[in-house]
Design a protein that fits this description.
Heat Shock Protein 90; 4 domains; alpha/beta; Helix Hairpins; single chain; five-stranded parallel beta sheet; five-stranded mixed beta sheet
Length: about 600
């Protein structure tokens, strides 16, 4: 948001959002006092309350209309919205002060009530209405005049000008307080805007670095996966395994940094849907089986009590369990790591226990803090950024749950994840087509157009797809060239990079879809290949006409599953949706 928008949001939040009950209650009490001291007739008191409530309702409705647009307004529009807010506030304060001009000769008690109320309105204006320096000049005049008038009526024989001068001094001091508050608020808003700008720059930097790192990482992991299918000596296989594990570790670190950035910005989203929890937990723990066995550990997974489908975010649940199991395996030298799930109340409890090195009470207090690690000796021996558990805590909170830890130095640790996951019906689509590997002949028959500007990524795709048969691939380096190739001849499938020169992947897809409609050509499946695969980005790609997204670094399994899904005819997909549901996964190792 711009500083003007931030000032507007801060003003409404402080002055109105949490104050409606207090403001309306105060007006009700003042109306009762006006009736008691004969300042207003019952009719005028009722009309006054209605007028004030109408002002409050107008401000509430106006804010509901403009609040969703904050952050997108240009400077002139934001300033116009500020002026509108000041106008509404002036109406409200004028309506509040109006009754204290009605009675030409109020009693002493009535005049005292009038002075006290107007002084209170002025103090509220001075304390709260500091969105701009001159806001006081628009919202305070009528309450100030009402206060001066009623002070003059309180003279009780004293010269009216003396009483007016006293009231005027009060107004001047209220104005000085408002100016002081306006300067402080302006400094705060500028600081908040600067911090927001710095955070935006950090997020943009991380997004850029993420894309730039994922491109060579795609080459490392992709070629490692392609080489894994070759005939290798034991020594070569061992070296290749080191390359793959190192690449995946770098990918995990990169994902953690991006997640942290999104959490800090409040832009990390959860996607709720039915998923097989037992299968998700098993899949999260399974990759650590080999490393656990390599250390002589027993990795035990018990998901018998959580079989079935639950409504929640499958990916984020898997991410938390993956992080917890990874930590337990890393910090355990002997014994076992146990992953257990059970139903509790309206949700589930997932527990990861180990017989590892444990933590001291001081380390346990800091275990969920960002960048917090154990003592330097442990951190130096085991490594890590200190982000994983902090992200787990934030993800759990984002899903409405919590995570707790208990530990004792030298006796292991236990992490308990509580998530409010209600039971859900199994989804109609089993996803069988996404995971069934088609015959090599099926891929060999495909004519595939690949739009990818990076030579390394082109080579990775050639090797990954080449493992499935003699696929007919045509490579182009930008979206415009892809569009021209599409117009020249028919294709069975298009693999489209998103960030390309000349014309990006989304723009090329939009033009291909328009050409299909104009020329009545059959719809060609188009898959996005991109390092930018956040949920809102994926939604944008699908809305533009893409049929699926494969996130970089690209794996053979991901790519093949996406191609199979894109090439599955609608009638086949419908038949699969009507088939039996897959059995729940999970179990013990």
């Amino acid at each position: 948001m711009s500083p003007t928008e931030l000032a507007l949001e801060y003003f409404y939040s402080r002055t109105y959002r949490a104050q409606y009950v207090l403001r309306i209650g105060t007006i009700g009490l003042v109306a009762a006092a006006c009736l008691h001291f004969d300042l207003l007739s019952p009719l005028l008191a009722g009309l006054w309350v209605v007028a004030f409530l109408a002002c409050e309702l107008v401000i509430w409705a106006w804010w509901r209309r403009i609040a969703p647009r904050l952050g997108t307004l240009d400077l002139s529009t934001a300033r116009r919205r500020q002026r509108e807010m000041i106008f509404f506030c002036a109406l409200s304060t004028s309506a509040a002060a109006a009754p204290f001009f009605v009675n030409p000769a109020p009693s002493t008690a009535a005049a005292v009530v009038s002075v006290l109320f107007c002084a209170g309105v002025l103090m509220l204006i001075a304390a709260q209405q500091s969105m701009t320096r001159n806001m006081f000049l628009w919202t305070a005049p009528l309450p100030a005049l009402a206060m001066i008038r009623n002070m003059m009526l309180l003279g009780n024989g004293e010269p009216p000008l003396i009483m007016a001068a006293l009231a005027f001094c009060f107004v001047v001091n209220a104005r000085q307080l408002q100016l002081s508050n306006a300067r402080a608020e302006a400094r705060m808003v500028r600081g908040q805007a600067d911090a927001q700008r710095d955070n935006d720059a950090k997020r943009e930097f991380l997004a850029t670095v993420s894309h730039e790192i994922r491109t060579p990482l795609n080459g490392v992991l992709g070629m490692a996966e392609a080489m894994a299918g070759d005939t290798l000596s034991p020594a070569q296989a061992e070296r290749l395994d080191v390359v793959r594990r190192s690449g995946h570790a770098l990918q995990t670190l990169l994902n953690d940094m991006l997640d942290l950035s999104k959490i800090e910005a409040g832009k990390l989203e959860v996607e709720i849907g039915p998923f097989d929890l037992a299968q998700a937990v098993t899949a999260a723990a399974e990759p650590f089986l080999a490393s656990a066995r390599g250390k002589g550990l027993r990795l035990h997974v018990d998901v018998a009590d959580i079989r079935g489908h639950f409504a929640g975010d499958a990916n984020r649940t898997r991410q938390i369990v993956t992080n917890l199991v990874s930590n337990s395996v890393k910090f355990t030298e002997r014994g076992e790591v146990t992953v257990r799930g059970r139903r509790v109340g309206n949700g589930v409890e997932l527990e990861v226990c180990d017989t590892g090195i444990g933590m001291s009470p001081d380390a346990l207090d800091r275990v969920f803090d960002r960048f917090a690690q154990a003592d330097p000796g442990v951190a130096g021996r085991y490594g890590g950024t200190g982000l994983g558990l902090s992200i787990c805590r934030d993800l759990a909170a984002l899903m409405g749950g919590r995570i707790e830890a208990t530990s004792q130095a030298g006796a292991g640790s236990r992490f308990q994840l509580f998530l409010p996951l209600p039971s859900a019906a199994a989804p109609q689509a089993t996803g069988a087509a996404l995971h069934a590997r088609p015959a090599a002949a099926d891929l060999s028959a495909l004519r595939i157009l690949v739009a990818e500007d990076n030579p390394t990524n082109q080579l990775v795709l050639q090797h990954l797809l080449g493992a499935f048969g003699d696929v007919a691939l045509t490579m182009v380096e930008d979206g415009r060239a892809a569009l021209e190739a599409y117009e020249r001849e028919p294709w069975d499938l298009v693999l489209m990079d998103i960030n390309m020169p000349v014309l990006d992947g989304v723009g090329a897809t939009v033009e291909i879809r328009a050409h299909e409609r104009a020329a009545a050509r059959p719809r060609v499946p188009i898959l996005a290949l991109t390092a930018n695969a956040m949920s809102h980005q994926v939604s944008g790609y699908l809305a533009a006409g893409l049929d699926g997204v494969v996130a970089k670094p690209v794996s053979a399994g991901q790519l093949l599953a996406a191609i199979t899904a894109a090439m599955t005819p609608p009638e086949t997909a419908e038949a699969e949706r009507e088939g039996p549901a897959a059995a729940p996964a999970g179990g013990r190792w």
